[in-house]
Amino acid sequence: MAERAWNRNTPSPERMPAAWNVFNNTLGQVTFPLLSSYKPVGLRGDDGVNYRIPLPGGKVSGGALTANVRNPGLAIEYSTDGVRWRPYAGSPVKVGAYALTRTRAVDGRTSRVSPVGVPAWQGGASYEAGALVTHRGELYRATRPGSGRSPDTAPKSWTLIQ
After folding, report:
1. What angle (nearest 5°) sits at the alpha carbon of residue 112, between those of residues 73 and 143?
2. Residue 63 CB neighbour total at 10 angstroms
3. For 111-130, what is each residue's pLDDT tens digit?
4. 151 neighbors 133 (Cβ within 8 angstroms)
5. 41 contacts: CB under 8 Å, gap ≥ 6
6. What are phi and psi of 76, to 5 degrees?
């Protein structure tokens, strides 16, 4: 991106969408896999360069999930429980009222989990074990049935999903 910002041969506004498409494809299909194979200088381990894996975008409509990611070459996975993950093949899949999505890089690393349509926690509501809710920007799973206290103050009733 820095090279593009300093490049005197910046495309005209008419050619910018095509240039952006080339940039995104190169980033997702060439640069990210290369970064995964580089050994960091002065650090232990063979994990390559630790780069941020972009989150996928998603939408649930009529019980079907559609999702995308801005960089080709990165795979999208989805789950309805946060435990079993399935590859998203590019066409809508039946999931119910909500889903979780994440992006997987070529080396197996994944992005953060991105909730799609997951309801916010409601005080006084009754939740079954396994129910997913968002609360204060975090994603939680009910570990046992009941209502009770909010997820961030009741660790025995809720598990934070990373």
Report:
1. 135
2. 14
3. 999 999 999 999 889 999 98
4. yes
5. none
6. -110, 140
